[in-house]
Amino acid sequence: MNKRKSLIVALLCAASSGVMAQSVEDGVKDLYYGKYLSAKQNLEKVIAAKPTEDKAYYYLGIAQLGLEDVAGAAATFQKGLQAVPTSALLQAGMGRIDLINGNAAAAKQKFEAASAATQGRDGDVARAIADANTEIKGGDRPYALTVMEKLLNNEGRKKKEQYTPIAADYIELGDAYRFLGGENGGKAITTYEKALEVDPNNAEAVMKEGLVNYNARLKSEAVADYTKATNMDANYGPAYYELFNFYITPKKDQLSWDEAAKYLEKYMAVADPADKTKNQYLGAYIAFFKKDYDNAISKGQATLAGANELYTNKLNLLIGDAYLQKGDSLSAKKTMDEYVAKVGESKLDSNDYKLLSTIYMRLKSADTTTQNQYTEKALGYLEKYAGSITAKDPETFIQIAEQLKAARKYAAAAEWYAKANEISLANKEQLQAIDYFNVGINYYYGAVNVKPSDTALLSKADAAFQKVIEAKPELGTGYYWRGMTNFVKDPQAQEGIAKPYYDKYIEISEVDPAKNKSTLINAYTYELLYYYFKEDKANLKVYADKLTALDPNNGTVKQITENMAAREKAANKPAAKPAAKAGQNKK
């Protein structure tokens, strides 16, 4: 063999060795660290070297799903089944695709077939089935728990048939408990602790204990767990990303752009080096959180040129939001309008709708027609956002309500405040008087400003204000607004339905007439009208004097005083003598 041929052989062997050096385990490790593109590249090499390795096809599909490439993952699972038709693991992978596509019945059929083929005793298959059913909307979470319990149950089995759990099994079982929620949170924590007994350095288990605590609204404990995970394994990117997500969440006890930027930088330091577009996008995002909006816009625009569909969406959102945050609503509108025109509304998601709604809500025009168009578009996008969100989060619902209130869509705002309250109560949170007040006041304005005769809205307002009274009986607010609501129903005060509430409000508020001047004037006015129609002169004078003391030129007092004087003058006027009959006085 000559030297040239020897060199070619050596290069071929080196290339072959490079392919074989990659293993399924390498790909799974990349997935653990959230390095989906590296996992994809490594697993593709494994398949190239061994086209019948079903685990490589399965985990390659999972990596593609991590990259949000559902079509690619489905194609990979199908290709794997062509190579390994009997693979229960790839059957479970196809079941996952069915769930993503909303076909729960087809998914369940595939999962059960895969489980039966392995007698429920294959760890990869059991975890694949359980993970799909916990993580994906429409999954059967009790079924996920059953699958993992069956895998781990060695009762009655001979020693050689017993299954030896790995940390990933306990993590998957813990996930099943976590997603079931409620009292299962404690069981999830216990199960994650079992994973740590098997693998004391498993940062994923600790991070997921943080997720349980966050779901239980133990936020400081959650942050401590996420931080502990990063201390256990400084390369574990998912924990840094959870900290970033924690501080990006728009809740008053979480949102911190400085902290978000800090943890996003820490995440980037250990992120997948192969995923250059993602890293460029995150670099623009860091500039955004540091409020360097011009830099965020320029970095985002530079990254757009080579971005795929997934990052085109993310980058347009980032650029549009950066323009909005720097006060350039028209450029924000232009960015997002061009994006919508390019991809079509069918491709928009909840984040797109939310930003579009906010942009159009901020736009101002001196032209009434243009301003009305902005408002209608804002509300249209807000409605789509409300219909697209899946999270049952009171604060998200409150944000929707506040945008509707700002657009003077009061009745709709009241409905969203009420939904937020329902979720809080379902989470066993105690509501405050303000929570009920927000519902009541928006129903009230919805009736008064839009449909004054809408007794259904007034009744809803009245019921909400009663809840204010129950939550804070010593406060005059609930009584006052029950009075106001019933005043609308009884504007002449002839029925007296608002009187009991105004009586109580007056009792509470007269200790400081100056502070409560405007509200007392309304309450006194109703009382004045009530006693006027009752012809109760003594009480009429009482409330006329109270009103005059607060408002010396009160028009209602003046009008009623004049009417009373005219009525008394008519009553005291001597009766006219009857006219003489014809011829009566003739001689």
From TrEMBL:
Parts of the chain that traverse the membrane: none
Keyword Phosphoprotein part of the UniProt annotation: no
Domain of life, per lineage: Bacteria
Statement: the UniProt record of this protein carries the keyword Repeat: yes
SMART domains: TPR
Signal peptide boundaries: 1-21
Keywords, ordered alphabetically: Repeat, Signal, TPR repeat
InterPro entries linked: TPR-like_helical_dom_sf (IPR011990), TPR_rpt (IPR019734), Ycf3 (IPR050498)
Region ranges (Disordered): 567-587
Extent of Low complexity compositional bias: 572-587
Official protein name in the record: Uncharacterized protein
